[in-house]
Specification:
This protein is about 60% helix and about 10% strand. The protein is of the alpha+beta class. A hairpin with a 2-residue loop joins strand 3 and strand 4. GO terms for molecular function: DNA-binding transcription factor activity; sequence-specific DNA binding.
């Protein structure tokens, strides 16, 4: 790729990120419009003009100094313009959201059967909303690298017949089976994460990216990582991870994904999503490996995820929707420790690590492990290890 092509590719990635919809570049319009035909059309007769052959013929006759916006009366919009010997197509998108009553009125005014309502709503909701002014500015950036590029603008309104026939059955936009396939794959992905199976989860993620969808959300910058992060959060919660652990991992990756999302390329974004899936799966596996019942595993996860401010036994019981007494009995029978004894053991275990691996003061280590009273920390530490923190540090040094 030469320097000019690389620069254009960078602009293309930036424009896609800003607009939230696809930017296509092609030297063969017929091939591109063939690929887009199913996404553009929800009804063969109402949109009989949205064929690859018709669109390809149309763009061949366009001026090279003008951005054209093709508006379909059912809501699909494409913008296209010529850059050197390549055609640039932005979309499909729509310029406004609708509601159920507006959708019904649109179909009624065109003489369409009410049976088309659900299919039409799914298709229409799958189009990202983009303002025409943003498209014009983006076209200028793509062609000149500046918002101030001088380009003409022309809107092309296409009309179809008033007597509709049967809806199109081609493509994901009008296929209920394709929607069902996508939902099944999403559920399989979340089920794999909830079991800590990163191999299966990543395989389902790859499959999701290849499925036809009414809205290809996995290809939209910003949106895709956000949706996948939410799916991972829900799946990890199903797998028994504590909310505080989920939040810490989720927010960490939200920050990292936002940073890489600002770059034109997507490879870094995909790599971060893979790391996120693997980290959630690793934590779920560790949680599921504990030799306890799901109830006690959840309790252990909640306690160890925040040693400084863990929930109390009544708070844990309330979250788990059981009585405090029942939780205490179950926990003691499976771990051999009361909840307070278990928490003290985990805090002291964390403290021993800090004592041997850092030069932090004892009072700082006490605070870091949940003991605001350093003297009480020393007392508990001695009861667990048989020595004071200072003695432990001294004897652990090589």
């Amino acid at each position: 790729m030469d320097a000019r092509s690389a620069e254009f590719a960078a602009r293309q990635g930036t424009v896609e990120a800003v607009l939230g919809c696809r930017v296509h570049v092609t030297r063969d319009p017929l091939v591109l419009f063939t690929q887009l035909e199913d996404t553009l059309r929800v009804h063969d007769t109402l949109q009989h003009y949205l064929t690859a052959e018709h669109l390809s013929d149309l763009v061949q006759r366009l001026r090279h100094d003008t951005v054209y916006e093709l508006r379909d009366r059912l809501g699909a919009t494409l913008s296209f313009f010529w850059g050197d010997d390549s055609l640039v197509v932005i979309g499909p998108y729509t310029d406004a959201s609708t509601n159920e009553s507006q959708d019904r009125e649109t179909l009624r005014s065109l003489g369409a059967s009410p049976s088309l309502n659900t299919r039409y709503r799914i298709w229409r909701a799958g189009l990202p909303i983009v303002d025409s002014e943003f498209v014009m500015r983006s076209a200028a950036v793509l062609l000149t690298g500046s918002f101030s590029g001088q380009l003409g603008f022309e809107r092309v309104a296409l009309d179809g017949p008033t007597a509709p026939s049967a809806p199109s059955s081609r493509g994901a936009a009008g296929s209920y089976s394709a929607i069902a396939d996508r939902h099944a794959s999403e559920e399989a992905f979340m089920r794999a994460v909830s079991r800590g199976d990163d191999v299966k989860a990543l395989a389902e993620l790859r499959r999701l990216s290849t499925l036809p969808t009414s809205f290809p959300y996995l290809s939209i910058p910003y949106l895709a990582p956000t949706i996948l992060r939410i799916m991972c959060r829900i799946a990890a919660q199903r797998g028994g991870l504590a909310p505080t652990t989920i939040e810490a991992v989720s927010q960490s990756f939200a920050q990292r994904l936002h940073r890489v999302g600002l770059t034109p390329g997507r490879s870094d974004q995909y790599a971060e999503v893979d790391r996120m899936v693997r980290e959630f799966c690793t934590l779920v596996r560790q949680q599921r490996a504990l030799p306890y019942s799901p109830l006690v595993r959840k309790t252990v996860s909640r306690l160890t995820s925040d040693l400084v401010g863990p929930p109390t036994q009544p708070e844990l019981a309330s979250d788990l929707k059981i009585s405090s007494e029942h939780l205490g009995r179950r926990f003691k029978s499976e771990t051999g420790l009361t909840i307070s004894q278990f928490l003290a053991r985990e805090r002291i275990s964390a403290a021993t690590t800090l004592l041997t691996e850092t030069d932090d003061r004892v009072r700082d280590i006490a605070a870091a492990t949940g003991y605001l009273d350093a003297n009480y920390f020393v007392k508990v530490f001695r009861s667990v290890t048989g020595m004071t923190p200072t003695e432990y540090r001294r004897t652990s040094m090589p």
